[in-house]
Backbone:
């Protein structure tokens, strides 16, 4: 009998195709233990603008599907850029659709901000995830500053420290997901 793989939902905060954040998630998915199955959520821009009037028992179908993916995942991995010292609007919008639910309550998450600076965006991501009761530690967070100079066009990480930090992050995230709640 084969053991079922633990599902990880990976969300890129960038809607740019083939962004640095997407490349980092791809690197992580290729380097995680084979007991995990990574699903990359690529429909961030398809979620409607958050509207509390629509956040009822029957929210829009795209929102229900997104929440369901989070609910069924053993963990969620978010890798995002910082735009104007904040989170990209599309990522914040997606997270706002989760505030009135418990889909992130006690959900183990890994948080990566990969941007030019990223400090403020990373701080805001942590605050939002705490607010919606997601579970993460200092070891399951990573800030990668100056990302554009740390990987090439093919997505290969060219900076040794970044490569090391990502390998350590993956190990810590796997350990957290493997722990019982």
Residues:
């Amino acid at each position: 009998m084969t053991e079922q793989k633990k599902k990880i939902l990976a969300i890129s905060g960038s809607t740019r195709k083939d962004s640095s954040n997407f490349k980092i998630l791809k690197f992580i998915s290729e380097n995680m233990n084979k007991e995990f199955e990574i699903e990359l959520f690529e429909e961030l821009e398809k979620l409607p603008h958050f509207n509390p009037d629509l956040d009822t028992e029957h929210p829009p179908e795209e929102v229900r599907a997104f929440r369901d993916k989070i609910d069924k995942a053993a963990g969620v991995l978010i890798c995002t850029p910082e735009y104007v010292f904040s989170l990209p609007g599309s990522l914040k919008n997606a997270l706002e659709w989760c505030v009135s639910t418990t889909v992130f309550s006690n959900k183990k998450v890994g948080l990566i901000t990969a941007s030019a600076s990223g400090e403020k965006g990373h701080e805001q991501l942590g605050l939002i995830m705490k607010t919606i009761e997601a579970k993460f530690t200092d070891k399951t967070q990573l800030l990668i500053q100056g990302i554009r100079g740390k990987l090439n066009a093919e997505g290969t990480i060219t900076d040794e420290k970044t490569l090391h930090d990502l390998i350590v992050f993956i190990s810590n995230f796997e350990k957290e997901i493997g722990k019982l709640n």
